[in-house]
Amino acid sequence: MQKAENIKKYKREVDGALANDFLRLAMDKFAVAYRGSRENVFSGMDVNGIIAEVAGAKDAAIARMDELYELFKQNAEKAGITVHLAETALEANEIICKIAKDNDVSKIIKSKSMTAEETLLNHHLEANDLEVTETDLGEWIIQLRHEGPSHMVMPAIHLSRNQVGELFTDVTGKQQPSEDIDHLVKVARQQLRQKFIEADMGISGANFALADTGTLGIITNEGNARLVTTLPRVHVALVGLEKLMPTLHDALTVNRVLPRNATGQAITSYVTWISGPNECKADATGRKQMHIVFLDNGRRKLAKDPVFSQVLRCVRCGACANVCPVYRMVGGHQMGHIYIGAIGLIMTYFFHGRDKAKNLVQNCINCGACKSVCAAGIDLPGLIKEVHARILDETGHPLTSVMLSKVMQSRELFHRFLRYASFAQKPVVGKTGYIRHLPMIFAREHDFKAIPAIAERPFREIWESVRPSVENPRYRVALFSGCVQDFVYPEQLVAGLQAMAGHGVAVDFPMDQNCCGLPLQMMGEKSAAREVAAQNVAAIDPDQYDYIVTLCASCASHLKNAYPKILDPDSIAGTKAKQFSDKIISFSSFMNDVIQVRQDEFTRSDETVTYHAPCHLCRGLGVKDAPHELIQKAGVFAPAQEEETCCGFGGTYSGKFPQISKEILNRKLDDVKQTGADILVTECPGCVMQLRGGAEKRCDSFRVLHMAEFLAKQRK
Amino acid sequence: MDNSKNICSIFSEKAKAVSAVVTKVPTIQAAFEYAADLCRQNDPVSGQAVKNGTPPPQNQGPRSVETQKIVAAPGLDSGLYAEFEKICGANDLTLTNKGLRDHLTGVAMGFTIADYGIAETGTLVINCPSEELRLSTMICDIHVAVLPMSRIRKSAYDLEPELTKMFKNSPDYTSFITGASRTADIERVLALGVHGPLELHILLMEEK
Ligand code: SF4
Ligand code: SF4
């Protein structure tokens, strides 16, 4: 559970997690293994098609939530189930507690339910003198340790077998050999079986509530939910309203994705369908006492929210944590309160409040890995930013971000500020081009990478001298530079022009272009982000160009994907934004797919080249093959295992969480090193800054080049 | 016919991939022989917890010699039950079809006849509103399920009408069972038999 009151304490806890070697190793192994097993289990399937089906089915059900509830209730009551609706977490807990008291219950067994964790049900029951035992192995372990889950599917993934062995030694009062996991599992089997036998009431969650038959569907691997719903005389299911689905068909569709996405299994060992109170010889009546408590806790409001209703699509597969580079570094206790991972950052705000969410939502690097695997197609990074912006609106924007957003909304002021910075840094730059001695406030945490100096002359000042003159052009192109290339790496843009030379590309550099606005979006400054977007759409008239080329993947993805959304689609600016967005193209795609540079234009050297796929290129724009093909045309390609894993930059993120950024970078550079490549090519100035700065600091032997620099260098 | 063969082989392949043992049997009698033979040879692992009694012993060893291994087969009709009982007796096993709540710490084997199979995932569908039948698939060390080959469908979607009919006939309890009970909660290492059966044997029964 995440309980840090302020960002400083939160960062301290993050540091603690980063220093936990077991956790780091376990997470690393898991991240790599998960990627492989997910790929395997989905092979031959149209993953995106099924995900779209899940999203569609969930959306339809969410829109009919109230109606489905009534229908379910009718059918369930006909079958003899008592159905309750709890508006809040407390109300749900009180209802369940009352059922226990009314039925003279003293011992309760539970199978896994995230919803019960959301309401902190165990605390409530225990405070009312009821004995509660979790029976899912991982949940039992963390219950015994008085901890919260660190993963939605694998709640005890942060623990080693030794820790579990010690725990079981305590519990059984007998030395348990911890190296033998099979043995530990058998110990749990025996201990828990006794609990099953003694219990008077079983509490479960449910993955599905089928309205047309009043059926609950429960997915487990261990089989504990079957015992929980069979042995005790009373069964209570606590179910979030978003689990309601019209028919079995919808549930079967979700079930095609959920286990595959969660653990790489085609299906879990058990899927249990319960309709009505079944035979139960432990009750005098011969039948089970069965109750279903539906939990609202804000869900009905959420279902009606145009932006956030998609949160309710979540099927709790946990995949968004499995692929998250931040989760991989810090584990679940720093990446969620009760719900973990990308969705956890969002749900914490809705189910557990602003205070618990305000630090967490800042800990997203915006790499998009979660969105690309989400079983329900939820725009997780977008919603995380949205929550962040809402919290700022509610609590006030920090002064620095207000000032920065003011400055950035005026291009001239912003650019003057950058020019001033280039002047002010002079004494600390020396001849290397890196800032050698940072002012003390930055120095300690930021010393993992060499920070490049601001260029002496930005691209906009040298533009006229490098502007290509092309007669009878084949393509008319506007260059969108982005701030980093304009002011820090103008040479990348110059290289880009060289790489295009001879292909009849007439390039224009519209001077009124401003920052793309992504950093503002990341800081939660939505209105400033909208303002600069409008400025850019006005500065570059899409009608005049065949393409708007950008060498910065982050800019490109923001311009292409976010602009049409953040500028009101019904306004004229919105229509323009759509036209603008249609013309945006990444440098690689332009070089490889549009002008189709040929192998014989390049001198192929013997140097091996590996590639880092910028998040905003491979996932943001879906550009994966063009960079590979370009590298193969101009050099010897040595692919890296974790090519698509984030480098840890994330713009303002690396400034906010430098420790995490550093560790992600280290993993990345290790992976690059393994390829033995001489050159690491990438296509985003932010990635170049992070990777080159890190490699310089670690004295890695490979060079880091922007794709434009690499192609310009290899041109005949 | 080719198609149904194909479905059977997909079923076997998928079920084996999740550690189920899949064998073909010509008749139900052959299934009884298989089960009894397997049960006789197997070392029991279930603990011996007792209702409201002393805590279970920590080490599971073989049960004391005088207790006979129990095979539970609550789903069989009386004719088949009598045949199976004879075979069990010959193998020094006790067959039962009721009172499983007296054996909650575990029985050696549960023997069931599955309602359907799902090829795509190697899944058994067992309709078990009867408590005895349900328990027999949960508290056994080894679960042996007979699946008539004609009952295998390609995907779960193909069973929608049948399943919905079962659900409507409430109270109803229907289980999809795929492989043995498993966990990976400790260091993500796969371990079988955390709560339910440690082994699942599926006997594909050929058509008469
Ligand atoms: S965008 Fe990346 S960093 Fe943010 S939550 Fe998703 S996976 Fe994690
Ligand atoms: S948000 Fe998506 S990926 Fe994350 S747990 Fe929910 S369904 Fe799975």
TrEMBL record, chain A:
Keywords: 4Fe-4S, Electron transport, Iron, Iron-sulfur, Metal-binding, Oxidoreductase, Repeat, Transport. Residues 304-332 form the 4Fe-4S ferredoxin-type domain. One of its GO terms (molecular function) is metal ion binding. PANTHER family: LACTATE UTILIZATION PROTEIN B. GO terms for biological process: lactate metabolic process. The keyword Repeat applies. This is HdrD3. The lineage of its organism: Bacteria, Pseudomonadati, Thermodesulfobacteriota, Desulfobacteria, Desulfobacterales. PROSITE patterns: 4FE4S_FER_1 (PS00198), 4FE4S_FER_2 (PS51379). Its EC number is 1.8.98.1. The keyword Oxidoreductase applies. Coiled coil: none annotated. It comes from Desulforapulum autotrophicum (strain ATCC 43914 / DSM 3382 / VKM B-1955 / HRM2).
UniProtKB/TrEMBL annotation, chain B:
It comes from the Bacteria. Residues 45-65 are annotated as: Disordered. InterPro entries: FTHF_cligase-like_sf, LUD_dom, NagB/RpiA_transferase-like. Pfam families: LUD_dom (PF02589). Residues 11-205 form the LUD domain. SUPFAM superfamilies: NagB/RpiA/CoA transferase-like. This is LUD domain-containing protein. It comes from Desulforapulum autotrophicum (strain ATCC 43914 / DSM 3382 / VKM B-1955 / HRM2) (Desulfobacterium autotrophicum).
